[in-house]
Amino acid sequence: MFSRIILLAILFIANPVFSAEPPDLEEQTRAIAAELRCVVCQNLSVADSPSEMAQQMRAIVREQLQAGKTPQEVRDFFVSKYGEWVLLAPKTEGFSLLVWVLPFVVLIAGLILGIWLIRSWATREGAAEKIDIDPGIASRFRSELTADKLTRPDPEDTSARAQLLREGMRYIEEIKELEFDFQSGKLGEADYTALRQETETKAAAVLKQLDALPAERPAKAPPKKPAPSRAAEKTDERRRSVRQWQLVGGAAFLLIFGISVGVFLTQSVRPRAGEEDSITGGFLTGTTPADGDVQSLLNEGKAAFNKEEWPRAIQAFKKTLAADPSNPEAHAHMAYILLQAGHADGALLAFDKALAAAPNYGMALWGKGMTLYQSKQDYAAARQVFEKLLQVTPAGQGRAEVEKVLAEIPLSDKSPPPQKTTATGKDTSAPPSAGQISGKISIDPKIKGKIDSQATLFIIAYGAGSTAGAPVAVAKIDRPVFPLSYTLGSENSMMQGAPLPDKVSITVRLDKDGNGSTREPGDLLGEYKKNPAASGATNVDIVLDQVAK
Amino acid sequence: MPWRRVLITLIIIAPLLWLFAFGFTRDTKYINSPLLAKPATPFTVTLFDGQKLTLEDLRGKAVFLNFWSSWCPPCRAEAPDLEAAWQRVKDKDVVFLGVAIQDTEKNALDFIKEFNVTYPNGRDASGKISIDYGVWGIPESFFIDPQGRITYKHVGGIRAALVTAKLEEALKGIMSAKEGKGDYQSIR
Predict the structure, then answer these.
(1) Which of A116, A138, A513, B30 is the most exposed place for a label (fewest CB within 10 A)?
(2) Partner-chain residue, chosen from A39, A57, A515, that has the shortest CB–CB distance to B31
(3) What is the pTM of this model?
């Protein structure tokens, strides 16, 4: 029988309607939440914020998507309440368009300015300082230039005077070239005059510095030498060109460094998901799986599941659930694994967790229905589940199978149940594994009318002798159908993975608002009459028989 | 020409300086409500005494709707003022309604007892009402006129005199042009 369940389950996994639906809702919820700004946080999205307000906003996003609203309608709803402020990415129209355009305009303007500055620095060659030149010195330069009074220094002379003289000679060369260009018509008069004036001014500044030098006079200092070699001039030119490239290289490095810091820092820092989480993402540390990793873990689990390699599948699904605790696919697959191992109650709990995250998840509905039908002989509940599955199943092989099973299920629970067996044929009266507690929860007929169909059931275990304070384990079942079977184990422990204590006191609450930490008037309550229950106990049956005031 | 360079530099720098200065005058966390002068979203809240109260049923009366939390210091600061304002106007066509948000029932009830609050109060456990009203800072107060339109919103602690004055305006259907801000507010 189990092989039939599993085969059909695989059919439901393969059916795109079922396999795509639950992740779609969660993905869509997360995608929209990631676009909304958390209203009580500093620069956090609703998806990333752990605040209560963000949780409530996420719930509203999910609810509206389930109600059939489009993502745009959901976004519009939040904009209608909080204004465009609530959108992390402002609209690309009207005044908000500036936010998108301005950075690029500034970037381009900055680049143009930077290039212009670098060019102008490079051509000025250190003559950026504005020197107040005496007009007398400028005319002296002209006369000295015409009289060819400036003597070229020895190329090996590195004194300040020699360097200034070399610079002066260069200006003389430049002026001669300018004159040549002007006379040959390559240069306009206005440009020639401006450039000549500029060069003369620079040269005059050199003369002024030469005059300021103590003792030696330029005429005396350098002995007459032959004209400087062409090689010396080339070295000077090379130096100038190296300086230009240094400037350009420096600017390019700063630009790339700035962009890298901006891009990588924003990618690598994110809010912590928990106490053990790191602030840097997988990008830098690889500590926390990103969404893509959840999917690959899930795929790994499914591959192992299909090959019936249970330990590997369990490991992969556990890792998936550690990263995404409400992942419906992981819960549903875990449920099938539990079912084939004979833990029908645990499987039902896992199916309920999957359905809490994705109420129309075909694979989970099928599994829950079959478990209720085959393992628990709870025909009424099984019919209810299959009828729901029928509503969401399109025509095809899957639907035909559901109809077939529905036709098989006896109409009444009073039909004599066959021997109590699980789908695998094992006797369920065998105790659950150590550290687990299981039983049945039902409703006192007197208060049956007070059940809220949207309520959430909390099964809460406290330390022995107490039914208040901090619980040691809690199981949550959304929209439960009574009577139901439950198993409480280490997976429900408040300290992750910790086994249940030897003895616990168990209470249950059918909570109208789904908030496990509060009790409101109208919530239905019950507790195990023989509290405390020992770890490993199987018949810890509880009746919801009180109404909270 | 030096003056031309100075002018170009000023043309580039002045708008940037203005942008910075403008940025400093803005509170980036403050959310201006788009709900002012719009119809108040209908809701039903279960009061702490178990009764249900629906906003639609209050049509024809001015409503003072206050979102609060027991853990929020400005809410504690304004609580005596709100009760005093209620005592002053309770004989008029006015309803006060307190809605506890992001709070536990026990703490909310303790708060009501501590400040001897006598006007109706309930709890918005799911946060739907507060999100419908675009609440982000606590406390936040909304004034709704007899036709069901939001006439004024106040973020942060509010004084009794302002409550009664804005209720008078709401009774006459006078819309405030801007929402009000108290310096004392909490977010969590």
Answers:
(1) A116
(2) A39
(3) 0.44
Classify burial at A212, counting beta carbons within 10 Å of its beta carbon; exposed 0-12, middle 13-18, buried 19 or more: exposed
Residue B44, H or E segment: strand B44-46
Count how many residues are written for chain A: 549
Instruction: State the DSSP H helix or E strand holding residue A542, giving kind and residue range, or none if neither.
Output: strand A542-544
Contact flag A83-B29 (C-beta cutoff 8 Å): no
Lowest mean pLDDT among A168-172, A421-425, B138-142: A421-425
Pair of tokens at residue A309: 């390699």
- The rounded radius of gyration (Å) of the Cα atoms in chain A is 41
Please confirm whether the linkage preceding B139 is cis (ω < 30° from 0). Answer: yes
**Mind listing the pLDDT tens digit for each residue in B68-106?**
999 989 999 999 999 999 999 999 999 999 999 999 999
Residue A441, classed as helix, strand or coil, is: strand
* Cβ proximity of B63 and B120 under 8 Å: no
CA distance A157 to A163: 8
**Contact with chain B for residue A74, Cβ under 8 A:** no
Cβ neighbourhood burial of A217 (10 Å; 0-12, 13-18, 19+):
exposed
A75 neighbors A32 (Cβ within 8 angstroms): yes
Using CA atoms, how far apart are residues A441 and A420, in angstroms rounded to an integer? 18
Establish, for the pair of chains A and B, how many residue pairs have beta carbons separated by less than 8 Å.
62
pLDDT of residue B67: 96
Q: From chain B, which residues contact A within 8 Å (Cβ)?
A: 29, 31-35, 46, 50, 102, 104-106, 123, 125-128, 130-134, 136, 187-188
**Residue bearing tokens 């249950």:** A508
How many Cβ atoms from other residues are within 10 Å of residue B104's Cβ?
Answer: 18
Interstrand relation of A542-544 and A437-443 (parallel, antiparallel or unpaired): parallel
Per-residue pLDDT band at B59 (split at 50, 70, 90)? very high
The whole-number pLDDT of residue A285 equals 42
Answer for the pair B37, B175: CB distance below 8 angstroms, yes or no.
Answer: yes
Interface test with A, best of B17, B31, B48, B150 (most A CBs within 10 A): B31
Identify any residues that bridge with A458 across adjacent strands, giving them in sequence order: A476, A509
Closest partner CB to A518 (pick from B105, B127, B132): B105
Any idea of the CA torsion for A367, A373, A377, A381, to the nearest 10 degrees?
80
How far is residue B90's CA from residue B117's CA, in Å, rounded to a whole number?
A: 13
